[in-house]
Give the backbone structure.
Amino acid sequence: MSTTTSSKTTSPKSPASSNLSGLECSPKKRRQLQAAVAESRWLDALRDSWDRSGRPALLWGMADESVSPEIGNLVKGLFAAADVPPASQWLTMCREVLETGTATEGAIVNLAAAYALPDLARSTDDDIWWEMVEHLASIESPSAEAIEHAFLPAVWLGGELPFVLGTVLAEFRRAGKRLRKSGAARLARIAEVYLDGTGLPYCAHWSSIRPWLAAWTRVRDVACEASIDWPGADPGEDYEWLLRRALQLTRGDGSSMFSCGPAWEEAFLESALAWCEDATEEFLARSLRLPVCRSSVDPENRFEKPDPSEFSEWAQGAVMRSGWKPKSGYLAVAFDRTECRAEFGIRRKVLAGGIVTEAIRVDGRPLRAAGEWVETCAFSEDGVDYLELEQRLESGWRLQRQWMFVRRQRLVLLADALLGTHKAQLEMKLTLPLASDVDWLSEEETQDGWLVTEGKRQAWLVPLAAPEWKVGGEPPVVEQVDKALTVRAAGKGRALYLPVLVDLHGSRRDERLRTWRALTVAERLRIVKPDEAVGYRVQVGSKQWLFYRSLAAPASRTLLGQNLVTEFFAGRFHRTGEAVPYVEVESDDAS
């Protein structure tokens, strides 16, 4: 039942590092080279096409907080061809920031220095200019360990910088070619290692997907404008796949999921789309209402849109979307080792996003993780996306986490199932970070409530396992603590289930009839206990849904007139009374 689009089966490993030192030539050759660089105008031409967004090309896709205002102004001045510091100041800053600044700032400043070399060649003493060239050429390509901790600086210093430097030194044929080849090979190798077979990055790098794509875009633009052939195999296919996944990870407001970066910059998107052989990506960009000025899409040509959802066991994540429009609902899940991140939203609103955590107690004792999250089931068909994860806990217990997204109905289900080895008093608390402008508005008499922005209801949230009505004196099942939502559940037995349903559908926000019930589950005329199986009915207006979860060995059980032998069932009630399944999972666990 598990499905995946990934073609890789091994864990990501980092490319080997390389060293870019070794430029040697006579003083006369240096002067000739500097004079040739001073005459080059490829950067001037690129400034004209890159500067339309009003944002420096080196900062495409990056949050403003990524670099200090001083460095941001420096980069902006460079690409505006104004206020470019002298080479001596550049050189001092390049060396200092590598030692004392952040990895991001060190890489940005030195990369900017490489782009500044043609300008500096026109106004700088040849000794200082060449010293700057030697400094940039001597920067070692980041090691495998460094890539794991500073991915984007590795892309910039290992790939983009040597390629740009090699382009600047094109007249120094052997060294220039070697540098360009090294940079191109590094970019290709990073793509090979950190992308699955369909362009989806390893989930730890989803927040970096646009700056990564931007670096690749700039390098391709540089090669084209400088009339330099791309060394080695053309990276077009991997590049187009990466662009498609960047579009797939686009929120309704144009920003990138799992990131605090800006919306797509027009010049960036235009440059990226220009490198696509067909118009599919442009068609998707137009569907997302992104700033696209090109018009290569024939309005009479009806494209078959790719599936908006993508699952990748290798990348350890899933992107579930209801469509390719800004108003579409979405749910993105990334499980990196012991962390599980998630984000969901609707229209142009991000409602929740961050690390989803759980606090579990067995007989009053905290139960901690003893393993990493692994995918146990993935399903995407007929407008329904489903992902199931599992994590080993201490003392032989297991935690299974279910994510389901029903595209047309805009339903999100998040459910944790604690599965144990013996009967105990069990407590679970699930914590879901809210977006900065989102708050929890609880109903006065019932346990459900709303996710609201500026007092406006955006999504209905209901803790299915909780009684519908509040009881005086008892703490609420759902509450907001700072900017996070916590949901609690407790029980006695070998298992405990904590399901949360979120209704994102805008047209149902004004429905007054909203109710849910825990159902009686029977097996051979016996009512089963809550640690064996549970079921719930939810109604909003005329819409009704059924959810069922077996927490013991699956058996033939009945609830609300439905006979089920599965481990998990989620579906809607047809007007005839029949439950039509969205997802039905059969267990392959002999236990």
Notes: The first strand starts at residue 310 and ends at 312. Confidence is low (pLDDT under 50) at residues 1-7, 9-21. Residues 141 and 420 are 48 Å apart (CA to CA). The radius of gyration is 28 Å.
